[in-house]
Amino acid sequence: MRVLFVSSPGAGHVFPLVPLAWGFRAVGHEVLVGACGESLEAADAGLPVVDIAPGFLVQDYLRQLFASDPGLPARDREAARRREISFAVTAFGPVNRRLADGLMRLARDWRPELVVYDELGVVGALAAAGLNVPGVHHNYGIVRTRSLWLGLQEALADLYDEYGLARPAEPAVTLDPAPPSMVSEPDGWPVRYVPYSGGAVLPGWLSERSRPRVAVALDTAVPGTEGPGPIRRIADAATGMEAEFVLALGDESRAGLGDPPGNVRACEWLPMSALLPTCEAIVHHGTSDVALAAAVAGVPQLVLPFGKHHFVIADAIEKRGNGLAAEPGELDTPLLERLLSDGRLRVAAHEVQDEIRALPSPAEIVQRLVDAA
């Protein structure tokens, strides 16, 4: 079987698709990824990739979008605080439109028998309709996205008309990697989340610990939009604590940190799947990939939401009890100490970890998808 994976632009959008793509290849199916921009990093996972929108960078597009409407970022932030995700339709409807022609050409040339697309890459449903094959909607995780799927489909309605296709009422299949106890209701087939965020040569210090370790992971966009303030606040709150804080931020974000305290290690980016098993907790901003990677590792989480869907994820973690949530400006030393000392957080984190382990693996889902196709 030929399986086409479609990703909206962004490494964090394509990475959740990689384990399932590996699962298909491991049992002999042909896999191809249609992507652009940062999502082309799927090639580093050993997958064949076609650039369906050469030269298109979502960062440039979003900068232009915000520049054309200076009030948009503030409205986006307020919508995020109201736990609304409708902004993604405004932002990613045009993105999907930009990908459509290249994707349709690829699909018609390669003729896949199944199309799998990420939750923001719903142009994949258009390609599936064009070939009359099943389209599989792969959720990122905790955020419930059915309304988002419908909104993006509505935004692309004229493209279905242009190609002479019937718009689907719902995905053929939705894959849901969320731990069931962390969401209000399931959405589709449950699948175990397998963290993937690239590879790296691991530093020697990673296996050497003399005190508890806390990972710090911020969205690459957070330091750029918020300045070094969030990073500096974390470092200041960690000063003097009997714990090591690992800021896996990359060169650009580290530049604004200055000289960190002795118990704060600023390092190159590391895969969460390698870093988190060495940690007792994590501080992050609230994206699904980091939240689920932490859940897989069974470590308590402190979420400092900045926008987008971060607040929804912060709510889910706080309600489940496997972590804490606070406004970035509320971060202080007592909060970090509670993250490490509150045994109830660790118990809940281990419960969620066991829950994830009981879900069907991507490899198990492969055969079910083949049978359904």
Which tags fit this structure?
alpha/beta; Glycosyltransferase_28; UDP-glycosyltransferase activity; 2 domains; Rossmann fold; seven-stranded parallel sheet; EryCIII-like_N; transferase; six-stranded parallel sheet; about 375 residues
Explain the overall architecture.
44% of the residues lie in helices and 14% in strands. By secondary structure, it is an alpha/beta fold. It has two domains: 2-176, 3-Layer(aba) Sandwich (Rossmann fold); 213-357, 3-Layer(aba) Sandwich (Rossmann fold), CATH 3.40.50. The strands form two sheets. The chain has a seven-stranded parallel β-sheet, with helices on both faces. Helix 2 crosses helix 17, helix 5 (87-110) packs parallel to helix 6 (123-131) and helix 5 crosses helix 7. The protein is globular and about 65 Å long. It starts with a strand and ends with a helix.
Q: What form results from the Cα inertia axes? A: globular
User: What is the count of β-strands?
Assistant: 13
Helix and strand sequence: EHHEEHHHEHEHHEEEHHEHEHEHEHEHHH
Helicity level, as a percent range?
40-55%
**Distance between the terminal alpha carbons, to the nearest Å?**
9 Å
- Using only CA atoms, what is the Rg? 20 Å
Keywords: Glycosyltransferase, Transferase
Domain Erythromycin biosynthesis protein CIII-like C-terminal: 234-371
Pfam families: EryCIII-like_C, EryCIII-like_N
Domain Erythromycin biosynthesis protein CIII-like N-terminal: 22-217
